[in-house]
Amino acid sequence: MIENPAIRRDRLSSFFAAFDVAAEQAMPEAANLLLLGQAGELRSLVFLPHAPAAANPGEEVLAAVSIDFGGPANPLIAALPDRVELAFEAAPAMRAVADLLATEASARRCGRQIALDNLCRLLLLLLLRHMIDEGSARPGLLAGLSHPQLFPALVAMQEAPAHGWSVDELAAIAGMSRTRFMALFPRVLGTTPMAHLAHWRMVLARRELERGSRVKLVARRIGYSSAAAFSRAYQRTFGEPPILMRQEHAVPGRAALTSR
């Protein structure tokens, strides 16, 4: 994903490409996605991005799922509020997916885990799309992805992190002057364009290292001219050198490759 220079202006694809979504059925108190209803009929969902449900939601729980969003580094999940509630009456497509999810969660059929993972992924995609369409009142990534002028610049950085982006280039993509862009971006996202780009690069780098990629290769993929410069930036961000993450996820018997 991070090698692809194409800029597709798709606000969610880069996040789903970078982070794996896995799901498993759970007890309601240990779940972060609850499908609620009455008399067996789905009515709403409760989504808790940052912690499992701790209290009785007050309705019948038709399905309770624990979703792993690819770790706490996922910046889109981190940007969401602590609790999201949605009535299916206003989202028929989401309800259809939730119905299938509830059925799979309660059954023990072949391919169940694949179905759960993919249905949760689709439901999460639809929910995030709905939230982007609704907009966000607080500064952050969700607000930026909801902004009609800023989101193309955000997606450009997300889709081509290795590109040597400049403020002028990003402002042109957003269709505004440099001055206007530099004033608006931090007001909507709570950070500067270059700080956002640097953080996104580090997030991608960490995911690539977790997946077993070599330090030099990761550095090149996210736009660093040398592994040393990348290692310094990585350590400033995460407080440890990238080689440690690489070693933790190295294939057994191939430790000699971890520093390459």
Q: What does the model show?
A:
With about 260 residues, the chain is of the alpha+beta class. It is about 50% helix and about 10% strand. The protein has two domains: about 15-135, no CATH class; about 140-260, Arc Repressor Mutant, subunit A (Orthogonal Bundle), CATH 1.10.10.60. The protein has helices spanning about 15-20, 75-80, 90-105, 110-135, 140-145, 150-160, 165-175, 180-190, 195-210, 215-220, 225-240, 240-250; strands spanning about 20-25, 35-40, 40-45, 60-70, 85. Helix 6 (about 150-160) crosses helix 7 and helix 7 (about 165-175) packs across helix 8 (about 180-190). The model is unreliable at about 1-5 and about 250-260 (pLDDT under 50).
Give the helices and strands, then pairings.
Elements: H1 13-18, E1 22-25, E2 33-38, E3 41-47, E4 60-68, H2 75-78, E5 84-87, H3 92-106, H4 112-134, H5 141-146, H6 150-159, H7 167-174, H8 178-189, H9 193-210, H10 215-221, H11 227-238, H12 242-248
Antiparallel strand pairs: 1-4, 2-3, 2-4, 3-5
Helix pairs in contact: 3-4, 6-7, 7-8, 10-11
Protein name: AraC family transcriptional regulator
Pfam families: Cupin_6, HTH_18
Keywords: DNA-binding, Transcription, Transcription regulation
